[in-house]
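Private note to self, pasted from the team thread so I don't lose it. Backbone tokens:
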């Protein structure tokens, strides 16, 4: 690794927390810390949402998906856009009407504190697992850099260092620091990827585009595949992607908290829909990088390239083939992608802990000053736990983007199903919802861990985009059947409707 590259990475690591703290301003209240007093411009929230969800998984693993296959992954992005449109006009107005700082505040208002706590705990566990994968993914290229320098540093040390930088500006600046740093970080890694495309284009043989097209690398739609087991079959990707996006951007505190930082519901709607458009083009950029790498390396297998992990592919190109300075920028971009996700997770985890759980378990009413103090303390606690969880994923043969999405899908169906149950089944009570929620998680786990299908003589599992629809259906069926025990609507449902009418 050249001195200029190392200098760029060092400046990024030192400068990121400083910039974040300066841009965030003074945090005077818990409302500042949690939702930035709802004064963040919608376009900044758009880029923050994109930076948070794509993270290192996009930078490292999406090129690998195209290298090993084609660009049918983009079908998921089509579904993501559809799902966000539904979130914009169905769920966001309810959050703003209730004045919530947590997505699960709606469930608490509709059903009661028991389901709010259940959903929050589920979110905490899911975020730790899913973003643990993301944090580990970031350590891959960093460790490659250190190995190139002759430094034998373990993954957990690299993971700890990345988490430390992220926690500094999250602790002091709250959601505003997270959002504004996200904007900067996204610009770094997207511009770095575009620069990599230009470098590759200049080094590939003439006719490379036609050769890749002939090899099927630019195939976008996949029809006729097994929709049950093929995650990139058109129906599976679009329908599953839409419901996944509805869960991730409408029922996951990680994304909802950003959207609630907008000035009003209209700005929030613009932010979430625009993020779907940006994500589509960003996925396209990294898929093109993967296809071009296929041409650059002559289509060699991962083993033939001497790689032990498929996600080492793009980092290897960055370190060995890019000109001085540019490789440093791209490594900084990978770090930026990771920190945008980790800082977002830390802020949302502390927010959910305080807003959904703390008072319920301590039985103490907190002042605003105490709430702000506790939010910062829990930011540090979750950072430590994150390092432990991330260290659990130091060995996997699956591209981490697929692993991360699969983990999140286990519980997303139950979470989104609970929201639908509250909106569609007026008779459903809290006990009905909790039982339905637990049943959905159990059924998803059974399908994920214990049920396989025989396709072309091989045993394969259910495609991960179907995990969310499966959870939704189970929640609605179980909750709906249990609600038949009651003679009339749940009083909580009437309270929610009245509040929405008053704020309309």
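Design output:
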């Amino acid at each position: 690794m050249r001195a200029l590259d190392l200098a760029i990475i060092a400046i990024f690591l030192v400068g990121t927390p400083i910039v974040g703290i300066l841009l965030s301003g003074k945090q005077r209240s818990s409302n500042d810390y949690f939702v930035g007093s709802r004064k963040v411009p919608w376009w900044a929230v758009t880029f923050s949402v994109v930076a948070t969800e794509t993270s290192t998984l996009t930078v490292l693993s999406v090129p690998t998906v195209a290298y090993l296959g084609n660009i049918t992954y983009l079908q998921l992005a089509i579904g993501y856009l559809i799902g966000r449109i539904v979130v914009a006009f169905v769920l966001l107005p309810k959050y703003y009407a209730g004045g919530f700082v947590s997505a699960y505040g709606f469930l608490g208002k509709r059903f009661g504190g028991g389901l709010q706590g259940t959903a929050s705990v589920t979110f905490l566990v899911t975020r730790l697992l899913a973003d643990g994968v993301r944090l580990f993914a970031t350590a891959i290229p960093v460790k490659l850099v250190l190995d190139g320098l002759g430094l034998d540093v373990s993954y957990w040390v690299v993971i700890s260092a990345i988490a430390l930088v992220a926690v500094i500006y999250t602790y002091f600046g709250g959601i505003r620091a997270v959002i504004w740093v996200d904007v900067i970080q996204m610009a770094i890694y997207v511009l770095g990827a575009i620069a990599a495309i230009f470098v590759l284009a200049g080094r590939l043989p003439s006719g490379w585009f036609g050769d890749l097209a002939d090899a099927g690398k630019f195939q976008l739609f996949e029809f006729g595949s097994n929709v049950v087991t093929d995650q990139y079959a058109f129906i599976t990707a679009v329908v599953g992607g839409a419901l996944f996006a509805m869960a991730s951007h409408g029922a996951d505190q990680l994304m909802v908290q950003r959207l609630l930082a907008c000035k009003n519901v209209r700005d929030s709607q613009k932010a979430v829909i625009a993020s779907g458009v940006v994500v589509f083009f960003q996925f396209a950029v990294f898929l093109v990088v993967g296809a071009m790498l296929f041409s650059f390396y002559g289509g060699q297998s991962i083993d033939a390239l001497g790689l032990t992990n498929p996600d080492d592919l793009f980092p290897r190109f960055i370190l060995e083939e890019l000109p001085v300075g540019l490789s440093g920028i791209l490594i900084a971009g990978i770090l930026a992608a990771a920190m945008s996700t980790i800082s977002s997770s830390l802020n949302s985890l502390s927010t959910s802990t305080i807003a959904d759980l703390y008072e319920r378990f301590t039985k103490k009413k907190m002042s605003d000053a105490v709430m702000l103090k506790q939010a910062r303390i829990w930011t540090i606690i979750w950072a430590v736990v994150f390092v432990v969880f991330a260290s659990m994923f130091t060995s996997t043969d699956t591209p981490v983007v697929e692993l991360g999405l699969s983990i999140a899908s286990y519980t997303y169906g139950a979470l989104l199903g609970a929201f639908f149950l509250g909106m569609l089944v007026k008779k459903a009570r809290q006990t009905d919802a909790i039982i339905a929620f637990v049943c959905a998680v159990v059924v998803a786990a059974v399908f994920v861990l214990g049920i396989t299908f025989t396709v072309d003589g091989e045993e394969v599992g259910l495609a991960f985009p179907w995990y969310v629809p499966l959870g939704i259906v189970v929640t609605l069926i179980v909750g709906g059947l249990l609600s038949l025990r009651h003679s009339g609507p749940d009083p909580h449902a009437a309270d929610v409707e009245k509040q929405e009418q008053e704020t309309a």
